Amino acid sequence: MTETALEARHLFKVFGRNPNQAVRRLKAGESRTDTLDAGTAAVIDASFTVNRGEIFVIMGLSGSGKSTIIRMLNGLHDITDGSVVINGDEIAGVPASRLRQIRRENVSMVFQHFALLPHRTVADNVAYPLELKGVPKADRLAKANEVIAMVGLDGWGDKLPSQLSGGMQQRVGIARALAADTEILLMDEAFSALDPLIRREMQEQLVELQEKLQKTIVFITHDLNEAMFLGDRIAVMRDGRIVQIGTPEDILTDPANDYVEQFVQDVDRARVLTAANVMERPRPVVADTAGPRTALRQMRDAYMSAAYVTGRDRKLLGMVTDRDAVKLVRKGETSLKSILKPVPQSVPEDEVLMNLFVPAVESQLPLAVVDAEGRLTGVIPRVTLLAALGPGPNSTEEITLPLPPVSHAEIAAVLGEAADAVAPAATTGDAARVVERAEGETKRAERARDEAEPQTEGEVR
Fold it and tell me: Would the pLDDT of 166 be above 70?
C-alpha cells in the first residue's frame, strides 16, 4: 500500500495585521479581495498528501502561493491555520528546538539561487548538514565526496562556488540536500535560474537520481513543461487555492476548469502523453493456432493488408501479410507458422509520443503497443498519433502538426496506399475481396484527408 510521507491539511497563510480574522472571513465564503483589509491571503484552504518516493509538483503563476506553501512545509513560514504532518509529526506550533530536529532528520531544501556558503569549498558546502548533526569531519567529507560524484561533480570538491557555473552550483545544492540523507526534499524553483539547456540537463539528472534514491520530493515550478516532465502528480494553484491535483496525463487530458485548460494548451503533448494514453483496441489480431483463411477474413474485416499474431497468453509473436496467407490457401496449408514474420516495430506502454513518429511511419500496421511481459495491449494508427497532438476537445484552435507542410496525397500515402494492400487474386471471390479491401483503404485515406483539412482560413502547419 502507498504510504504518506507528508500531508497538508486545510492550510491558510495570511500576511497582514489581522490574519486570524481574514481566515475566519475566508472560511465564511469571502474572497481573497474582500479580506485585503485584514491581510493578504497567500494560501487558502490547501490540502494534499505526498506519497513516499514520489515527485509531487506544485505549480502556478507568480503570486499563486506555491512558494509560500513550500516554506510552510518545513516551518520557514508560520502556519496561520491548518496543519502540516511529516512522518506523523505535526510541525505547527512545535518548539523551535523540535522544529530544527525535524528539519535535520526529515526535510532538506534546495533553493532557487543555490544559497551556497561562498567561503567554503564544494565539499565543505555539501558536508555542512552533516556538520550540523555533529558527524566527525572525516566521515562527513567521505559522505560529501560520495554524493558529489553522484551528481556529476567528481574532482570539484576543493573548488569554491565562485569557480563553478550556475548549473554546477545547483548540483552542489542538490548534493548538499542529498548528503543530509533526509527522506523529503523540498525544491523551490530549483532550476528556474538556469539557462534552458542546463535546465533540461538538470531535470534529466534529477529523474535519474530519483530512480536510484527514491526520495520524496516536493518540487515548485511555474513552468508547465517542467512540471509535466518531473511530476508523478501535479497540484495546480491559482490565487492561493489548489484548483486541481492529478497525474500529468490527468491535468493535460481532463482539466478541471477553464483556467487549467488554458494553462495546459501550449504544453508539449508529445513529451507528456504516452502510448498507453492514445492506443486503441488491437485489430486485426490472429491467434497462432488460426489458419490462413481465418487470417485473411480478419484482415478483410479490418481493411488491412497484414495482421498481428499472438499466442494464448496474448504475447506478440509476429505478423502475417495477406499476400503470404493467399499463397498458403493455394497450397492447401492450414498453419501460419511458415509465413510468420517478426514485428519490425513495437513500443512499450510508457513510451512518450515524441518517440513514436519514426516507428509509426515505418510500421506496415498500426504501431503495436506491448506491456512489460511482451503482451499486445493496443495499437496506434498514424492518424490517431497525429490527432493526439492537437488541442483539447473543447478547443476551437486549428491543429498545428509537428511536421513540415504536406499535401493531401502525401497524407494519404503516410496512412498507407491502397495499392500496397492489394494481394493477387486467386479466384473470383478473392478478387472481389481485394477490391472491397482497396475501397476501404481509399475511404480511410479520404477520411484522413478530410480530418487534415483546416477548419479555419489558416493553413495546417
Answer: yes
